[in-house]
Amino acid sequence: MIRILNRLIKKHLSKLSADQGVKNFITDIEDVFKQQKEEKEFMERTLTLSFEELNQINASLKDNLAKNRENHRKLEKIVAKQNALFDASTEAVFSFSNDSVIEKVNQAGIEFLNISLDEYDENEVHTCDLFMARIANVDKFNHDIDEIRHNSDARIHGFFDTVDSKHYEYYSVPEVVDGDFIGRVWCCRDITNIRENEALLKHQANHDALTDLPNRVMILDALNHAISLSNRHNTLVGVLFIDLDDFKKINDTAGHHEGDRYLIEFAQRVKSALKNGDIIGRLGGDEFVVIVEGINDVLDIIQINERILALCEKPFYIKDKKYYMSCSVGVGISPDDSVDAEELIRKADMAMYQAKKSGKNTYHFFDDKLDKIALESVLLESQLREAINNDEFILHFQPKFELENGNICGVEALIRWQKTPEQLIYPDDFIPAAEKNGLIRDITYWLLEKACKTMVSWQNTSMANIPMSLNISALDFSDLNFTTQVISLIDQYQIDSSLLEFELTESIFFDDIVQVQQTIATLKSRKIKISIDDFGTGFSSFAYLRDIDIDYLKIDRSFVQNFHQDRKSHAIVKSIIDVGINLGVEVVAEGVESELEMNLLAAEGCHIGQGYFMSKPVNEKALCTFIEQRL
Prior knowledge:
Strand order of the largest sheet: 13-14-16-17-18-19-20-21
Mean pLDDT: 86
Strand content: 15-25%
Number of helices: 23
Helix content: 40-55%
Radius of gyration: 52 Å
Largest sheet: 8 strands, mixed, barrel
Distance between the termini: 180 Å
Shape: elongated
Low-confidence stretches: none
């Protein structure tokens, strides 16, 4: 540019080129152009440098961007895997904010809440109430997790049951960011199958594989528990050691498989003969143990023994072949024989061997005194059966009197057992045993038929039209066939049933009051009178007096005897009389022993009396004489 300018100056200003001013002007212009050239070169160098730096920066940015994109893809993969793992987990996982709002829940958590994914709207606010609604015992759960209310950093672990009977194990840890608590994560694992498997393993460890009965381990545990309870309640525990007689012949003739079937059936038969709460277990082979708790009377054990022995009277069928088997039973009683479970079983085992020596198909008590009671009970039962078959029972009669005028108004027929011509046994000595062994029904039928025959024989005599009362067992009264038998006998002997009176104890009302009402209604339809015997000695509920139709209340002799000397007994007697009068039923006092008692009872409004002062129970001949003398 300067060279071009010089040529132009020389061409057009050649005449002035020597002029110093022009020279200076040209020099300045050259300087300006030089400076401009230098600045241009500087700018060019600067621009070149900046472009290279920008290229470098751009390249660096592109590299960083590529790396960021790669990191983002890696993070996306990590999050995707975490979400997949989160949802794939069989544990229910919940993330709660610090204000107890569910922020995140996996698929298992949705299923835990017992709702569908569509029902769970993530845009809605779901609080911990949704979670708590699934827990069965909320109060216990709140108690278990109370620590996290006082310590947000607490890590807790425990168990809970859901409302649909599932079992869960839970873990809970805090969510903390830069030291700040932002929420809590709960992981809940369904352990229902684990618990069930544990229960199964425990069951298998404590039960016999063949019969599924408790094995020796569980028997000892149950027996120790029973002994401990009996000590607190002052009751007895009975252990029955049962061994099958000649069981080997089944295995030898039918094979072990059929022998196993027999053991299972025998176990089921014994189980059916026990009451709720009694336990039967298998020690092994053909040996079984029965634990009987809450015994107050050894006769209860005798009754169970008899039922078990009777089970073998029914044949067992193995491969269509009939087998009759028996068993021998040894009995140990706690605390009499031992308070140690192992020792008690050992003594019952010893007693069982004694039963084997006695001829098998029987039972034996370890204690000689108890064994004597058992033998006496067996003997008594056998003798009672013979007495029924041989018609060894008789009736005695005790007259009843109207206290107002002294007239005879009826007789109570009392059964006696004429065991020998010289030995007369009273009801208290054989009726309880008859009730326990099931013979009471036969005895009651004898009583009813004998009463009907007697009333027929009294027709056209001085004892005609005298009402007769009979004591009826609560067991008979609960028998659905009882009224049928009564009506059948009345019709058979054509007696006036309005002369019959049944005396019932209060125990008949302990069970089914509706059945009692129906039975009484049936009897009343035939004009049979109903009396409540021994009133005041039972539970004496006014409810049954309201709900049933009775004709008489009998005051028990324990209140009548010396009631004139005992203020409390006098108050009870007067109260019963007042109750009877207010209910419109007649009151009978039994056990009247003196004229003073008779007069005081009459003064209090009692209607009828019976007792030794008036007449002892007498036989039919003496009764006839007594009545004829009073006519």
